[in-house]
Amino acid sequence: xxxxxxxxxxxxxxxxxxxxxxxxxxxxxxxxxxxxxxxxxxxxxxxxxxxxxxxxxxxxxxxxxxxxxxxxxxxxxxxxxxxxxxxxxxxxxxxxxxxxxxxxxxxxxxxxxxxxxxxxxxxxxxxxxxxxxxxxxxxxxxxxxxxxxxxxxxxxxxxxxxxxxxxxxxxxxxxxxxxxxxxxxxxxxxxxxxxxxxxxxxxxxxxxxxxxxxxxxxxxxxxxxxxxxxxxxxxxxxxxx
Length: 241
Known about the structure:
Elements: H1 8-16, H2 19-27, H3 32-71, H4 76-108, H5 119-146, H6 154-164, H7 179-192, H8 200-239
Helix pairs in contact: 1-8, 3-4, 3-5, 3-8, 4-5, 4-7, 5-6, 7-8
């Protein structure tokens, strides 16, 4: 189990509430690095929204498949719905691919240059910049997992678990494929394979496993989204003080 300790973003929120931090932001509010900081908070929210939308879309398609299996058990209707799922999956992957391309450009924009080189300012900039880069990297891993590109290995899970605590995501950490990729492969086999046809019961088991993973991820991302909102609101309140 993941320790239910404080999310690192909560530490950032607390840090932003320190009088010294607020003094620096107010004093430097017209500097480009402050604008970049505010823009960075929006970039993080955008990436979180992309991940949430992908999960919602996939969950809806998954439940349609499960509903047909429960009612019919198989047949042409299930095959047609499986094809719809695969088509929908391509749409999700395309959206994620576009988001990841934008993410690479956004990561380059995270490099903040300040004209004021005093120690307090540089310490604040370095801390907030490091958090943004690390969080964007975490979103990249999550999106790759959802798209079926990369499974969650134990060495990459730590950074994710720190952000989406206290929810533990019940996804495979050492599998060669993510749950999302496993479903795609299973449906391809169910629809198109002539020699190794997947049994409906096996398909149902795979779908249930992915739905559980989606549910946990949704809760974790909602946890993260709320904290990103708190940080953005804190920055806005400080700058409008």
